[in-house]
């Protein structure tokens, strides 16, 4: 019998939490510092941006998620958008939270899936503290308007925090059953956020918390995040279907584009996550701004969103740059012109991020919030911003976030002061 089995669950939990926390704060110290330096650099780079006003807008958005007007469909979309932001924030450190190269040893410990989820939830909660600030501001705004709505808001915020932490922990631990249970609980939570009598809303929120607890209890009795057909074939003893490799699916493209795309879909590149966030963030903001009836506050929110999405372009740029460095001995033997890969990489990233930029600009044009010539200036200057961010690859990775965020902040300042006047 092992030491953990002799000492019981609580010492085992403390031992496992200590292992995971020490690994996260030792191996991920540089990334954690980069994130906080990124926030400090954004504040210090351009005092012209009203960060206090933006904080109030974010608090109003958080307030609309949990206690604002709208039907069930609107609240469900806002909850999913908020959970997507939380997952995107923790995705960059998911490998470190999971244990990194230390994970094979952790899998040999006699720790239950529930304990693993609790430990991952504690670690992710430390990373998510800045993201919960708008919800606290939303609670203050709710209490200043009506003290009768404040208890329902606090209860909804507690249920939302628990569900989003469980969802992030389920993504870290790759537990499919818990993710599905949380998505079902979101439906009940959205029903509890609709304007209705207190007790009916409270019952819906309690049901959401109970459904999340049921998923937490059943987490150890379900397969991980594997493709459902593969799991089904294993479950019923059917032969596994061999999926075609990435090379087969990319055979229709040109050799240059094939090499670029292969570096994007490589394991650990995180390009697909960046592209998904860059697409769903403008869609989520579009739905959230409908709560404000697309008033004058919509323009700074969408412009700041464009500057934020531009930061995700560093992920595909870095993946392409890493692939070029690995293949440098071979590429040096080919008769390629100078800046060949630089132009090709920039063109590919522009094609990948142009749809998200159009989604940001489209609601501003449809509701006549900007002049007719402003979209052309916005998209052209956005392309220049992405080109400038590509130049950040030659900077040391420790200082790259500050430089890139400063460029986005300066771009946002220029657009807010000049183009939208």
Outline the structure in words.
75% of the residues lie in helices and 0% in strands. The chain is an all-alpha fold. Helix 4 (51-67) packs across helix 9 (133-145). The model is unreliable at 1-9 and 222-247 (pLDDT under 50).
Helix count equals: 22
Low-confidence stretches: 1-9, 222-247
Determine the strand fraction and express it as a percent band: under 5%
Largest sheet: none
* Helix amount: over 70%
- Tell the overall outline: globular
Defining traits:
421 residues, mainly alpha, 0% strand, globular, disordered N terminus
In terms of topology, how is this protein built?
Blueprint: H1 3-7, H2 9-27, H3 29-45, H4 51-67, H5 72-91, H6 94-98, H7 103-106, H8 113-127, H9 133-145, H10 150-173, H11 176-193, H12 198-217, H13 228-235, H14 246-249, H15 255-264, H16 271-289, H17 298-312, H18 314-326, H19 328-331, H20 340-366, H21 374-391, H22 400-419
Give a brief description:
The chain has 421 residues and is an all-alpha fold.
